[in-house]
Amino acid sequence: MAKAKTEQVRRAAVLVAGSWGTALASVLARNGYEVLLWTRNTEQASSINESRMNAKYLPGVMLPEGLKATVSLQEALSGAELALFVAPSGAMREVAKQAAPFLAAQTLCVHATKGFEADTLKRMTTVLSEELGRAPEQIVVLSGPSHAEEVIKRQPTTVVVASADMKAAEQAQDAFMSSDFRVYTNPDVVGVEVAGAIKNIIALGAGLSDGLGFGDNAKAALLTRGLAEIGRLGAAMGANPLTFAGLAGVGDLVVTCTSKHSRNWRAGHMLANGTPLGEVLTKMGMVVEGVRTTRAAFELAKRYEVEMPITAQLYKVLFEEFSPKAAVEHLMGRLKTHEIESIG
């Protein structure tokens, strides 16, 4: 009697084991993948495997079956049909460089990091392309309004995956799509990455505004003018303006600027209350991408000759000891201009 065919195990690797990486690893595991979550920290890997919980980043939430942690990149990537890079922007190049020798040619590469490389000002797809030896269109970016704290609890979430190669985008869409995690495709990689990065700067500003006791009027103006800055820089870098009206643009901007889960909002709020930047970053205990991105966007605005007044004022607050209140007063005292012309 012939033996029944065994179903092939689908494997995925997720690098690294922060809150967002863990949440997305859980999505993949619930979708039937055997997932290895990579971390450099042996103690963290043991804790995840023994307790089935990432206690440091997502306490109190059990991880699904099929998700395990490892400190071995070779083990994580062996046989993986999908590799998800969720390292902070400052560590992405080094993680990619270490992963490259173990990455199979057919493995689909996705990243979900929102930021620029600080010294080169490069987007994450460019960094991965350089270190993995792959064309940029072979890399997919996942972005959109999504907090790890809600995704891990299976609360309804909708995101976008972007790639110039629609087949690659659709492969990523199929991998992540579920009843509580809806995924759209988008060919505009530049727009999706720029929007995901710059919205963190505006979220810092929203935290500052709230910390100073300003109201909803101020926050609405900040989000709207912040979206204009995202659009100006994105257009200069070759993005499709329509992207900024979608999930990766206004969707991610709203959720990051208004949610208690937002690290960038919390950091801005603490700064407004007089906490020095170094102390803010220490107390957060996690990477606040908006701080690094403010420096990068400030330089990108000069490179592309784009006006980004909110970014410029936040740069002064973060790196030149300018007071948050003075920054707001400067923004309100700018010369009069026409709204629609100033968006373009």
TrEMBL record:
- Could you give a single Gene Ontology term from the biological process aspect? phospholipid biosynthetic process
GO CC terms = cytosol
Q: Which residues bind NADPH?
A: S19, W20, R40, Y57, K114, A148, R263, V287, E289
| Gene3D superfamilies tied to this protein | N-(1-d-carboxylethyl)-l-norvaline Dehydrogenase, domain 2, NAD(P)-binding Rossmann-like Domain
Q: Which residues catalyse the reaction?
A: K199 (proton acceptor)
Where found? Cytoplasm
Q: Which residues form the Glycerol-3-phosphate dehydrogenase NAD-dependent N-terminal domain?
A: 13-168
Which InterPro entries does the UniProt record give? 6-PGluconate_DH-like_C_sf, 6PGD_dom2, G3P_DH_NAD-dep, G3P_DH_NAD-dep_C, G3P_DH_NAD-dep_N, NAD(P)-bd_dom_sf
Q: Which reaction does it catalyse?
A: sn-glycerol 3-phosphate + NAD(+) = dihydroxyacetone phosphate + NADH + H(+); sn-glycerol 3-phosphate + NADP(+) = dihydroxyacetone phosphate + NADPH + H(+)
The record's annotation in Pfam families points to:
NAD_Gly3P_dh_C, NAD_Gly3P_dh_N
The UniProt record lists the EC number as 1.1.1.94
Q: Which domain of life is it from?
A: Bacteria
The main place the protein resides is cytoplasm
Top-rank EC class of the record's enzyme: oxidoreductase
Q: Where is the Glycerol-3-phosphate dehydrogenase NAD-dependent C-terminal domain?
A: 188-329
PANTHER family xref list: GLYCEROL-3-PHOSPHATE DEHYDROGENASE, GLYCEROL-3-PHOSPHATE DEHYDROGENASE [NAD(+)] 2, CHLOROPLASTIC
NCBIfam families registered for this protein in UniProt: PRK00094.1-2 (NF000940), PRK00094.1-3 (NF000941), PRK00094.1-4 (NF000942)
Q: What does this protein do?
A: Catalyzes the reduction of the glycolytic intermediate dihydroxyacetone phosphate (DHAP) to sn-glycerol 3-phosphate (G3P), the key precursor for phospholipid synthesis.
> What HAMAP family does this protein map onto?
NAD_Glyc3P_dehydrog
Name the chain's protein.
Glycerol-3-phosphate dehydrogenase [NAD(P)+]
Protein's gene: gpsA
